[in-house]
Prior knowledge:
The structure holds 2 protein chains of 2 kinds. Chain A contains 13 helices and 20 strands. Chain A is of the alpha/beta class. In chain A, helix 5 (166-176) packs across helix 11. The longest helix of chain A is centred in the last third of the chain and has 14 residues, at 305-318. In chain B, strand 11, helix 7 and strand 12 form a beta-alpha-beta unit.
Amino acid sequence: MAKSYETELPLKAFGWAGTDTSGTLSPFNFSRRENGDDDVTLKILFCGVCHSDLHTLKNDWGFTTYPVVPGHEIVGEVTKIGNNVKNFKVGDKVGVGVMVESCQTCENCQQDLENYCPKLVFTYNSPYNGTRTYGGYSDFVVVHQRYVLQFPANLPLDAGAPLLCAGITVYSPMKYYGMTEPGKHLGVAGLGGLGHVAIKFGKAFGLKVTVISTSPNKKSEAIDKLGADSFIVSNDPEQMKAATGTIDYIIDTISADHSVLPLLGLLKLNGKLVTVGLPSKPLELPVFPLVAGRKLIGGSNFGGIKETQEMLDFCGKHNITADIELIKMDQINTAMERLSKADVKYRFVIDVANSFSSL
Amino acid sequence: MATQYEFEHPKKAFGWAARDTSGVLSPFNFSRREPSEKDVALKILYCGICHSDLHKMKNEWGTINYPFVPGHEIVGIVTEVGNKVRKFKVGDKVGVGCLVDSCHSCQNCANNLENYCPTFTLTDGSKYSDGTATYGGYSDSMVSDEHFVFHIPDELPLDAAAPLLCAGITVYSPLRYFGLDKPGLHVGVVGLGGLGHMAVKFAKAFGTKVTVISTSPSKEKEAIKNLGADSFLISRDKDQMKAAMGTLDGIIDTVSADHPLLPLIGLLKSHGKLVMVGAPEKPLELPVFPLLAGRKIIAGSLIGGIKETQEMIDFAAKHKVKPDIEIIPIDYVNTAMERLLKADVKYRFVIDIGNTLKPSS
């Protein structure tokens, strides 16, 4: 059985994969395609651990095919380029994010919104050319040049990796829904990988930022370290009441089941609640507050390639990276357990190159 | 028995009121204020019946003090104007809608969005800032600050103009605000009642393609032949709904009964917008995945500001967008309410106040 993963494509590859709903990862020999004319091959240096990786490993969303090699916050060094590749050269530091292919002909692709293409191919766990895509918990990856990002020269590679999913996932809706006017008030619900980057972007846009969280012990970090202006404990009714109608827009990064009504109450009239977390069950939507306040709830799903590059360049300019905990590949299972308890400040990043040095 | 209401204000008035949660309406003598320098007084000729009237008559939202005179789709003729009134004169054809006051100082009021003022005053079943009750348009006369009074253009018949004042603006405002008014867009309308039929008419007047989504197959012929919709989807037909997935730029959802949102979200194209104008009592289920995967939006909207209501009336006059109404005499009103409860009306009852509302002897 394992033999077919190793030989189905020409280039030998090695990574760690989950093989069942326990989500436990273990070493996995597989294979990747040859570098084609439009491809870039990169040796993977670092890969961020996204909560979606954990959901996929455990098949929480019901569409995982095992074995799955997760990882879509990939930073690496170019080792080979195809004949048609003009924008990258060997040795460049580059990133690969959540997608590796799209149809290029639909209306969304034409508008640089590949992330909404109905034929989107994800970096891992997607059907692709008769096999499947395998992600960044591995030694190298071959990607069409269109989906490779230039990594800003001044940013550390390890702390920059989470920008490729967490970063764009909050940057894109902040731009699309107009959450960038200096002086306005942004709420960030949930203080994890996505939430902590949202605070940093919010401050860079000149917004007042309030963190909304169930954990009072995160307050001093949020304010002293991450730069938030204030902090509300969401299950404290008095704090929530005092903040009623004070916030222009909220990025909701929480993927646990939670009530939307109190968040809607925090919004000013015409306010926007944008959800980027993915709860496994539908949320309860109270319609009256939406109607009475012309409020809206919107979704957003990472970002297109052009805006991901724009986001990276913005981070380079403003020196924005994630707060990370660097781990080796063989610590991944412990990291996943800690992630399931939100015990990380605020993203694990796998030091891939130094984990596989024995190869 | 009702004498306190007759002496509350200087001008005698007569209407029909609900006295208790049975919601049954009966004749009611009361009074209105003397017009102040900024007020317009009007003789009411017609008043539309809104489904909200029914909810409020039975105090389903817990906001009502009895006796309650409903009615906020009011059309009439000016009988008196205060000496600082600039926009109206005696004899003008005018309307009064859902609002009779707002704070005039908050940011929403400053932006012509009185309908989102935290302290707005509703035309019926509310209280003025002096604590006195507001009585609505199921009555012979009305006194309102000129800011909240609308001109009714000559091109609009007065009886048909009445439902514009609530049903009309309630769908016109979100079609404009959410950008669903561009020719060539494809707009869905859920529910084919007072609001729904107005949404179809306005959307067609904007040049959009319109699909009606309804639970009642019997409404299809009407929707297409009479109202001008381009197509019709039966929401319980899974195959029809599946075939239409990802085809709509926006949806105006007028249904206030409990209903599933997931199929409606599926009908939207990516970046599409589902706008709720009906207000279901209990929270609905919001599936988050499809919102994210398609960057879709669910929003709400409540009536409209004063400036845009006048704009809507003028638009309706210019483009011949007229509500479909059934005119009734006042003493039919309780029967009309029973029929309204069963959605048995095409598509708005309008009370012929001028000809049939006479004080009881």
